[in-house]
Amino acid sequence: MAFSLVAKQAVKKLKEIACIQLLEPIMKIDINIPSEHIGSVIGDLNRRRGQVIEQNNEPQRAVLKAQAPLAEMFGYIGCLRALTAGRGQFTMSFSHYEAVPKMLVTNIIGDKK
């Protein structure tokens, strides 16, 4: 028990000194949807901390290229299908790692300063 307490204090002190960052995987997302649903899909991506990188509008369809954290993308297919009446499709692949926003880090590790 004493060792556990000392180890926690040492890690906390090391975190302050070393400026440790928590990283999360960012996914590249290609979304193919009917044009009339662009607004609701972009709004949902924003809610998921996503960023639209490129938007190509065709007569009846729209193709969005975006990036979003993997943690926010679980269950996305069901949400996309609900937003587009079952006509939306997407593909997702790993892009890179990014630092987790500080507000979320405190929620993840439970560190209250």
Keywords:
38% helix; 4-stranded antiparallel sheet; alpha+beta; 113 residues; EFG_V; 4 helices; protein biosynthesis; Alpha-Beta Plaits
Count the E strands: 4
Our count of helices gives 4
CATH domain class: Alpha Beta
Assign the CATH topology. Answer: Alpha-Beta Plaits
* Average pLDDT, all residues: 89
Distance between the termini: 23 Å
Determine the structural class based on helices, strands and strand pairing. Answer: alpha+beta
Biggest sheet: strand arrangement: 2-3-1-4
Order of helices and strands: HEHEEHEH
Overall 3D form = elongated
Helical amount: 25-40%
Show unreliable segments: none
Query: What characterizes the major β-sheet?
Result: 4 strands, antiparallel
Computed Rg: 19 Å
Number of domains: 1
Tell me the quaternary state: single chain
Strand content: 25-35%
CATH architecture: 2-Layer Sandwich
Pfam families: EFG_C (PF00679)
GO molecular function: GTP binding; ribonucleoside triphosphate phosphatase activity; translation elongation factor activity
Keywords: Cytoplasm, Elongation factor, GTP-binding, Nucleotide-binding, Protein biosynthesis
InterPro entries: EFG_III/V (IPR035647), EFG_V (IPR035649), EFG_V-like (IPR000640), Ribsml_uS5_D2-typ_fold_subgr (IPR014721)
